[in-house]
Write a structure and sequence with these properties.
The protein has 115 residues and is an all-alpha fold. It has five helices and no strands.
């Protein structure tokens, strides 16, 4: 009995992967084996990048809060310590937004924390 191979599914699978390689340079865009490896590596980088994005934003927020707090004579660590002691539950994202876009509101938070 002859061997049965599902060419339709195989072709569709390759076609979908080649769509992901669109925009790649050189053989990465049109040679199956090279494109497959490039796509796999790209997906790994995308996964890693999603984790790094969170770290990068947290460090950006910390930098902005530190810059805002130093205008009022406090370091970042002093400010965050006093913030937690005072019971104010604002996260770093919100604090960074206040420090950057609403300096009066951030000043009010710093004044409450200093007391």
């Amino acid at each position: 009995m002859p061997r049965s191979v599902n060419h339709v599914a195989s072709r569709a699978k390759r076609k979908n992967l080649m769509k992901l390689a669109k925009g790649y340079f050189g053989r990465r865009k049109n040679v199956w084996t090279v494109a497959k490896n490039a796509i796999e590596k790209g997906l790994v980088y995308a996964y890693i990048g999603r984790k790094q994005k969170k770290r990068n934003f947290r460090s950006l927020w910390i930098t902005r809060i530190n810059a805002g707090a130093r205008q009022y004579g406090m370091s970042y660590s002093q400010f965050m310590g006093a913030l937690h002691k005072s019971g104010i539950e604002l996260n770093r994202k919100a604090l960074a937004d206040l420090a950057m876009n609403h300096p009066d509101a951030f000043k009010a938070v710093v004044e409450v924390v200093k007391k």
